[in-house]
Specification:
Elements lengths: L2 H11 L7 H7 L4 E5 L2 E4 L4 E4 L2 H4 L8 H13 L12 H13 L6 E5 L2 H18 L7 E5 L10 H4 L16 E4 L13 H19 L4 E6 L15 H12 L2 E5 L23 E4 L11 E5 L1 H11 L14 H34 L7 E7 L2 E9 L4 E2 L7 H10 L2 E2 L1 E3 L3 E4 L7 H18 L1
Helix pairs in contact: 4-11, 5-11, 6-10, 8-9, 11-13
The structure holds pyridoxal-5'-phosphate (PLP).
Length: 447
């Protein structure tokens, strides 16, 4: 198909995720045709730097022949194996044990999904099962954090705190509760991290007390909030929340769908604070976006409790494509690449990215630069002292995205003028410098 016919066919048939259906029809699709390393080529043959690794997922970068070979070989040998009926495939079993060996503490048990949303959804089901098994079925209330994102499944979207994921859907929401975000930029406690941590711990405690000590099942958190605008909690926040969940007797779930697989430096961001969650969700960097896959990891205690509750009955939770052998083969190869140098390169390039973006702070439009490793955001303001957000009419997210695109840079443009960055870990110094330079170009054009 020629590009023009593709654009028309897209307009007529393809529903894009999280898009305004009307606006998309008016704007049309922006074709991507190929990619290599950290660079993508658009429908007109222009090369751009992918400063967002697709959708914070292509952590290894594009075009790794060894990943392609692993997928091809697995497709040839055994393209599909169900995990039902006690069946299994070698790559899935090897991947589960590789993750168990590397995950914090005794997160030894892995259930594979197709992506992040169904991983989060699976945790909700497993957690409800866990509390039933413990004889506490009344624990059916869940707590998460304002500005958080936990996918768009019917239940997971309830934990998500971004209005677009609730508006118009009429979701059941009477089981979920939010505590305030740890967002530092406009926080009066910005210069007093200990007070901010204490406030979050106190709010979590008060929420559990308000709901009733035997009503709350779990607390969900992203180690760094991604879709909320890359919001980084102060050091010690995650550990304090984890500890308080233990004191309160509720489960602590780390949603590492974005932060996993080297995005912040280590394999899992929980390692940054040396904590062990009760459950952890993974996706994106697990297969580096080459094929779909997500995962739920749980501690031995959670697993054994569910097992005890089920007895000889089947735990009725399953997907046709759970532990897909091709996805597992890809994930194993991606893991080998991370450990064969990409994690190290990501740490070096992450420091360069953070320093480069921090250098933009002198720009009149830059109010805040934040992030960790290869995860960052630049927040634009019209008044640095008052921290006035960019009015949407001045520069709508799509226009800022367009400007970056024209400058040869793919980034995430959040509403209210926040740029998000999550480049592939394979970036060279030249790629990182170009991301920073092109951002300055976009800022200059936005003045
Ligand atoms: N959890 C977090 C923290 C995410 O960032 C995302 C996606 O961005 C999800 C869950 C949902 O993952 P998916 O889009 O693969 O369903």
């Amino acid at each position: 198909m020629q590009n023009q016919s593709l654009i028309e066919a897209d307009r007529d048939h393809l529903i894009h995720p999280v898009s305004s259906f009307h606006d998309h029809e008016a704007r049309g699709v922006r074709l991507l045709q190929s990619a290599k390393g950290a660079r993508v080529t658009d429908g007109e043959g222009r090369e751009l730097i992918d400063g967002f690794a697709g959708l914070w997922c292509v952590n290894a970068g594009y075009g790794h022949e060894s990943i392609i070979a692993a997928a091809t070989e697995q497709m040839r040998r055994l393209p599909y194996a169900t995990g039902y009926f006690d069946l299994g495939s070698e790559p899935a079993i090897r991947l589960a044990s590789a993750l168990a060996m590397r995950a914090p503490g005794d997160l030894n048990r892995v259930y594979f999904t197709l992506g992040g949303s169904d991983a989060v959804d699976s945790t909700i089901r497993f957690i409800r099962y866990y509390w039933h098994a413990k004889g506490q079925p009344g624990r059916d209330q869940f707590i998460s954090v304002a500005s958080g994102y936990h996918g768009s499944s019917t239940m997971g979207a309830g934990l998500t705190a971004l209005p677009a994921f609730h508006h118009g859907f009429g979701l059941p929401l009477d089981w979920q509760h939010k505590i305030a975000s740890h967002d530092l930029y406009r926080n009066p406690l910005r210069d007093d991290p200990a007070a901010l941590i204490a406030a979050s711990v106190a709010e979590l405690t008060a929420t559990v007390e308000r709901l009733g000590p035997d009503r709350v099942a779990a607390f969900y958190v992203e180690p760094i909030q991604g879709s909320g605008g890359v919001l980084v909690p102060p050091a010690g926040w995650l550990r304090a929340m984890r500890d308080r969940c233990r004191d309160l007797g509720i489960l602590f779930v780390a949603d590492e769908v974005i932060t996993g697989f080297g995005r912040t430096g280590p394999l899992f961001a929980c390692e940054d604070e040396g904590i062990v969650p009760d459950l952890m969700t993974l996706a994106k960097g697990l297969t580096s976006g080459y094929v779909p896959m997500g995962a739920v990891m749980m501690t031995e205690e959670v697993y054994q409790t569910i097992a005890g509750g089920a007895g000889s009955r089947a735990v009725g939770h399953g997907h046709t494509y759970s532990a897909h052998p091709v996805s597992a083969a890809v994930a194993l190869e991606v893991l080998a690449l991370y450990e064969g140098g990409l994690l190290d390169n990501g740490r070096i390039m992450g420091a360069r990215l953070q320093a480069g973006l921090a250098g933009l702070s002198d720009h009149p439009l830059v109010g805040d630069v934040r992030g960790r490793g290869m995860l960052a955001a630049v927040e634009l303001v019209t008044d640095k002292v008052k921290k006035t957000p960019l009015p949407p009419e001045m520069s709508p997210a799509t226009r800022l995205f367009d400007r970056a695109w024209q400058a040869g840079l793919v980034l995430r443009s959040f509403p209210q003028g926040v740029f998000g960055y999550a480049p592939p870990l394979c970036c060279t110094a030249e790629d990182i410098d170009a991301i920073v330079d092109r951002t300055r170009q976009v800022l200059d054009q936005t003045l």
